Amino acid sequence: AQKITQTQPGMFVQEKEAVTLDCTYDTSDQSYGLFWYKQPSSGEMIFLIYQGSYDEQNATEGRYSLNFQKARKSANLVISASQLGDSAMYFCAMRELIYNQGGKLIFGQGTELSVKP
Amino acid sequence: ETGVTQTPRHLVMGMTNKKSLKCEQHLGHNAMYWYKQSAKKPLELMFVYNFKEQTENNSVPSRFSPECPNSSHLFLHLHTLQPEDSALYLCASSQPGTTGGNEQFFGPGTRLTVL
């Protein structure tokens, strides 16, 4: 069965510094996708970044980058130059890639990030 | 309207009531999802619809009944709920396929309280 583990319930970071949020996963599938979502206090889940299991390069989206280590089954999110607006819950998720179907996302427990001014 | 919308945003209901949650997506997607987010727990997938057909039911109790009349609309009909069903219910949509991210776009959620 697929499983996502986020071991950091809460993290603090000083504004303008970088922070790494940990995510490990477990799957026997060869083809899968890894996602990071941000959930502010308003409740909406906001997509941040995606990494495919066959992608050789780490994904980057603006201040977000994904440190993908396939052999270790880890997909850590790095946020550079933290901003106060980055304070939120962050969820790592995994999806089996099934042809022509929307596949279910398996979510981790989440990490609550607080950015200090 | 753009993206994924959900109504109502907040709902309080008694255990004997019948209510429905509505989700609408304006993204042209063909897959839609219901998730439940309870306090201190990860999001749990409830149902998946691909091209209006239900392709996943994650052992959800029958007091939750989904309906997908077309690719843009998804409903969750609720009846005789229990207090432990109180949670944030999130709807999402995506474009089916295996190429690229096909990320799921989420609505703002309906916060449900069952008394």
Written description of the protein model:
The complex is a heterodimer of chains A (117) and B (115). With 117 residues, chain A is mainly beta. In chain A, 0% of the residues lie in helices and 52% in strands. Chain A has strands at residues 3-5, 10-14, 19-21, 24-26, 32-39, 46-52, 60-61, 64-69, 74-79, 88-96, 105-107, 111-116. In chain A, strands 2, 5, 6, 10, 11 and 12 form a 6-stranded mixed beta sheet that branches. In chain A, strands 3-9-8-7 form a 4-stranded antiparallel beta sheet, with no helix packed on it. In chain A, strands 1-4 form a two-stranded antiparallel ribbon. The termini of chain A are far apart. Chain B is mostly beta strands and 115 residues long. Chain B is 0% helix and 56% strand. Chain B contains no helices and 11 strands. Chain B has strands spanning 4-7, 10-13, 18-25, 31-37, 44-50, 53-57, 64-70, 73-79, 87-94, 105-106, 110-114. In chain B, strands 2, 4, 5, 6, 9, 10 and 11 form a 7-stranded mixed beta sheet that branches. A 4-stranded antiparallel beta sheet of chain B has the order 1-3-8-7, with no helix packed on it. In chain B, 34% of the residues are buried. The mean pLDDT of chain B is 90. Chain A binds chain B through residues 4, 31, 33, 35, 37, 42-47, 50, 52, 91, 93, 95, 97-110, and chain B through 29-33, 35, 41-43, 45, 48-50, 55-56, 58, 88, 90, 92-98, 100-109, 111.
Number of helices of chain B: 0
Sequence stretches where pLDDT stays below 50 over 5 or more residues of chain A: none
User: How far from one another are the termini of chain A?
Assistant: 41 Å
Q: What proportion strand of chain B?
A: over 45%
Helices and strands, with pairings:
The complex is a heterodimer of chains A (117) and B (115).
Chain A: E1 3-5, E2 10-14, E3 19-21, E4 24-26, E5 32-39, E6 46-52, E7 60-61, E8 64-69, E9 74-79, E10 88-96, E11 105-107, E12 111-116
Chain B: E1 4-7, E2 10-13, E3 18-25, E4 31-37, E5 44-50, E6 53-57, E7 64-70, E8 73-79, E9 87-94, E10 105-106, E11 110-114
Parallel strand pairs in B: 2-11
Antiparallel strand pairs in B: 1-3, 3-8, 4-5, 4-9, 5-6, 7-8, 9-10, 9-11
